[in-house]
Amino acid sequence: MTKLDIQSGQAAPRLGVPDRDALRETLQKQGILIAFALFLVGFSLMSDRFASWDNVSTVFRQVSIIGTMALGVTVVVITGNLDLSVGSLLSFATVLVVDLHDQIGPAPAILVMFAATLLIGCVNGLLVGYGRLNSLIVTLGMLSAIQGLTLIYSGGQNVDIADQEGTWFAVFGRGFLLGLAVPTLIFLGLAVAFHVMLTRTSFGRRVFAVGGNPTASAFSGVRRARVVFSAYVLSAFTTACAAVILGSRVMGSQNNVGQGYELLVLSGVILGGASLLGGSGSIPKTVIGVLILGFIQNGLLLMGYPYYAQWLVTWVVIILAVWLDVASKRGAFFTRTS
Amino acid sequence: MADTLASLRRYMVIPPIWLFLLACVAFFSVLTDDFLAPGNFTNILIQTSTIGIIALGMTVVMINGNIDLSVGAVVALAASLSVGLQDQLGTLPAVVVGLGSGVALGLLNGMIVWKTGVDAFIVTLGAMIGVRGLVFIYTGEQSFFAMDFAYSDFGMSTIAGLPTLAAIFLVFAAIMHWVMTATVHGRNAYAVGGNREAAEHAGVRVGRHMVINFMLVGFCAALAGVTLSTQMGASTPNLGRDYELWTITAVVLGGTKLAGGAGSILGTLGGVLTIGVLRNGMNLMQVPAFYVLVVMGVILIAVLFIDARVNRRGAGELRL
Q1: What is the per-residue pLDDT across B160-213, written as a single tens digit (0 to 9) for each?
Q2: Number of domains observed in the structure of chain B
Q3: What DSSP string runs through B131-174?
Q4: B139 domain residue, yes or no
Q5: DSSP string covering A23-88
Q6: Residue B272, domain member (yes or no)
Q7: Long-range Cβ pairs for the range A133-136 (8 Å, 24+)
């Protein structure tokens, strides 16, 4: 049995090896940051175009959709739940906003899309929060149901926007402000807002409390159901924002455009060090996790590797990142199970 | 006598999903003319055999309290290898390599879960992405066609009136049922999932046990990839996409708990057939395929909801 440190709730450091403990603590707390820095240095050494402003801003723009979705999913994961429905939800929201754009105009389209998407988030929240059902299965069912809804709505047809040059809707995906791409600004702006919400408000503290210790938080008067419900609504909200970026950038949408995004987004969140058990995770680290995914893709492409090589590297990186985290908490690299 | 009855009840207890399955069968029999036709049942069996074979392995892994998200990618890997290598190696060795790839990947997943202690969800999530990448690199994003017609003939063949693929699924299900109810390995699977520490203290070699199960589910996924490609006489790099989600749906419908320690092959068989019957019946009723997705999602959540209400454990649990 490991002794628990009462204040941090983590395994107490063994006495007598201060240097290794300090190293371990740094690795544990800032491992993702160190890995990120090593990545950047490595890639910059191997490709001279990598570290250019153009390239870096391109990567930020590329990860903005997954990154925006990851913000909401981070909140859900901190409460100790999963949201596998965000990929389907992204397809649904993008098809809806693009299709409605030509029928009722950009602003009403965005409003209707947000209302519909948040409504689906509420269904998730009701089932997992108030219904106390297993989040993996609920959102798996919703993944299928929302996919069906999208197809029923569009009749299986792809949708697109007729007047792609004239509409101000283009600004969300293609615009630039003060030299920065609007998708990047939306992503980083929302990231700051979510960070403040999680670290500076009582709602944020309740999110961590519910995920970290449900029983204790319940006795302290935190209403788990309400917090979890809000988390799913926030997740739907960030997905809706991502849909605006995606729809505006592509000016059209396929019915399955978000297929597989749920697990990519989750990889970013996990790379950022959020535990699937809940109670831990942070927005800046999720942003870094998503950026690592983006920079892996970008760096490998610049070095001339085939497109799919990034998926192999992602495989290794995800497992290594979580392994380091688990190992530093355990104080040993390997388990002792026989 | 009472003991015999009790043990009979323990083994013969029918998973509730079978009642739902019966209701579905009755429903579609009344509403459509063709549902009860003899050819239709073998049809359903063939259609469900792919997901069904994977679900058998997944059941054991989930009873362990683990999960395998990489099965869909393994389906594509095994199919691509066993079709793509036919020219160089000959058909049978190519199939062996395909099946071997699944077992090897299961070994890798299992060893990582065992030795590093990283959650199986994360390990297999990574593998799902990585193996899909491997498939795309290996195939060069191309579909492969089986030049050996014996390969695609196998997918169409029948044994004693039953399609071979359906027979493979049913025989495999029977074997797995036996393993889970009558062998030490099966008993250990429940023990590890129910209380891992207790199982460890009782002398179960938990790590090795879990590795075997990951190899089993890897084999199942690879076998499903091979049978699927014999059905089509071809393989595509996108084969098996979303299969992990369908498989988990079938297993959960069958009553296996995500937390581990509970579940059965009989239940999984019921879950798999339920999905097959629903899809087939709704097709016969000419319901557009889009609605089937919605219905499947709603049923999955409804089953979870009913299960939670009926089998609520720890009624004294704090509710807010």
Answers
A1: 888 999 999 999 999 999 999 999 999 999 999 999 999 999 999 999 999 999
A2: 1
A3: HHHHHHHHHTT--EE---HHHHHHHH-EETTEEHHHHHHHHHHH
A4: yes
A5: HHHHHHHHHHHHHHHHHHHHHHHH-TTTTSHHHHHHHHHHHHHHHHHHHHHHHHHHTT-----HHH
A6: yes
A7: A133/B301, A133/B304, A133/B305, A133/B308, A134/B258, A134/B304, A135/A76, A135/A81, A135/A82, A135/A83, A136/A82, A136/A84, A136/B258
CB-side neighbour CA atoms (13 Å) of B72: 21
- Angle A169-A174-A175 from CA coordinates, rounded to 5°: 85
Q: Give a yes or no: residue B316 inside a domain.
A: no
What is the per-residue pLDDT for A5? 44
Q: What is the CA radius of gyration of chain A?
A: 21
Residues of A (199-228) whose Cβ lies below 8 Å from B: 215, 218-219, 223-225
> Which pTM does this prediction carry?
0.87
Interchain pair B242, A259: CB under 8 A: yes
Q: Which domain holds residue B113?
A: 16-307
Low-confidence ranges of chain A (pLDDT < 70): 1-21, 24-29, 31
Give the type of residue at A235: S
Domain containing residue B59: CATH number: 1.10.3470.10
3-state secondary structure of B36: coil
B201 in a structural domain: yes
Residue B127 has its nearest CB partner, among A310, A315, A334, at A315
- Among the listed residues A128, A124, A129, the one whose alpha carbon sits nearest the alpha carbon of residue A143: A124
The H or E element spanning position A177 is strand A176-177
DSSP track, A11-25 = BPPPTT-HHHHHHHH
The number of CA neighbours under 13 Å toward the Cβ of A207 is: 28
Q: What average pLDDT does the structure give for chain B?
A: 89
Q: Which pLDDT score, from 0 to 100, does residue A97 have? A: 94
Closest CA to B221 of B182, B172, B181: B172
- Contacts A156 to B, Cβ<8 Å: 290
User: Can you say how many angstroms the Cα of residue B139 is from the centroid of all Cα atoms in its chain?
Assistant: 25
Give which of A144, A217, A313, A335 to mutate to test B binding, by max B Cβ within 10 Å: A144
Compute the half-sphere exposure of residue B53: CA atoms within 13 Å on the CB side of its CA.
28
Domain boundaries, chain A: 53-321
Q: Among A75-79, A271-275, B79-83, B128-132, where is mean pLDDT lowest?
A: A271-275
A interface test, pick of B301, B305, B310, B312 with most A CB neighbours within 10 Å: B301
- Would you call B125 helix, strand, or coil by DSSP? helix
Query: How many CB atoms are closer than 10 A to CB A294?
Result: 22
Rounded to whole angstroms, the Cα distance separating A255 from B18 reads 34
A181: which strand partners? A176
Distance from C-alpha of A238 to C-alpha of A83, rounded to nearest angstrom? 12
CA distance A120 to B129: 27
Query: Distance between CA B34 and CA B25 in Å, rounded?
Result: 12
Residues paired with residue B234 on neighbouring β-strands, in sequence order: B145
Class (C level, CATH) for A53-321: mainly alpha
Is the pLDDT assigned to residue B317 strictly greater than 50?
Answer: no
CA distance, residue A308 to nearest chain B CA (Å):
5
3-state DSSP helix/strand/coil percent for chain B, to nearest 5? 75, 0, 20
